[in-house]
Amino acid sequence: MFATGIENSIPTINNGKTRVDEMELCGHYTHWREDFDAVQELGIQFLRYGPPLHRTFLGPDRYDWDFADITFAELKRRDITPIVDLCHFGVPDWMGNFQNPDFPRLFADYAGAFADRFPWVQVYTPVNEMFICAVFSAKYGWWNEQLRSDQGFVTALKHVVKANVLAMLAILKRRADAIFIQSESSEYFHADSPKAIHIAEQLNSRRFLSLDLNYGRRVDSDMFEYLMDNGMTSEEYHFFLHNRLKQHCILGNDYYRTNEHRVFEDGRTTSSGEVFGYTEITRQYYNRYRLPVMHTETNLSEGPVGDEAVQWLWKEWANVLRLRNVGIPTVGFTWYSLTDQVDWDTALREQNGHVNPLGLYDLNRNIRNVGRAYKRLIRDWREVLPASSLCLTVPIVSPAHYELQHAREQEAEAKERLRHEEIDLGREDGS
């Protein structure tokens, strides 16, 4: 699956007073047709995409589907398969923030309503980068609730991951052959000195928490104590163990130069740059979860020479091929995003209006060098790879094939399999 994305990040900053809407900043609400043209021009058939949550989810059982209706109808007409991103770093104002214990239930209602309205959609990322969302909102103090505490982080994390699980349950109830691609940041923490080893080990355990909970994997003893000491109850923990949906998932992971960190003995961290790289860190995640892998985000600024992003694309693609060659089932690659982004250099926490040249296209919708390189890469490799991509038990049904008989049969078979799984789709609260 060669993919790109149109980012729908919507965190709030300034103590909730300011909404950062990347779709608005990057002009997608105006230029969405041109953006879809660009996706097709590149030869891309999979698009990470979703409606802006704050403009669509107006209140309990209240939705404004106008923009989603026109854009998703156009994706279906063009036979572009969306990987639907339902929550990207923020919630509507009426919901507050990720400390709200009602968020998981409310979000599951929204996911179910979306699946009802767009039954032809099969592939989802319900909540994007759950770990980063909780860290930036409640540990670093950058977004949304802007807390800086372990208890705030654990509260945000348990709500975000529970929302993701309940959303998967709600979608499966309506589309039994749904596939969920987690887009989670792949991290690693390097100790700067022997005195920093213990801190680095703790951080390297903590990086797995979102996926451990999401996949119903028991955490290690240190992390169990950490969760319990910071507000998670035994009942909440066992919710995740009893609602195990791993078998419906692809391990999507994101990798940037900033994903590796240098840890100092006083607890400070800084970016270390690329040390291990995507292959080694992904191998760690794969060995833990044993799921098919998709590289769901990467990018680099074009740079003063003009070929920096092209070289990064080549390097990340070489890493993906290496994973496949050592036997790790790898099903996709994503350059993120389609267009340049605004204020990515400050992680969306400052309103500077800086246009970061990270996209396949600039904000005038002119193709960049990396866009041309990605187009060639897709053309050259598309026909080489499918023969070894049979790790998906459930095939992806393109929008154009949704009404065909084989798609109906596949969904019927998936419903039968669900009856034998130890999950209760009748209770959307997951209890």
From TrEMBL:
Top-level taxon in the UniProt lineage: Bacteria
Gene3D superfamilies on file: Glycosidases
Record Pfam families: Glyco_hydro_1
PANTHER family with a match to the protein in the record: ALPHA-L-IDURONIDASE (PTHR12631), BETA-XYLOSIDASE-LIKE PROTEIN-RELATED (PTHR12631:SF10)
Name of the protein described by the UniProt record: Family 1 glycosylhydrolase
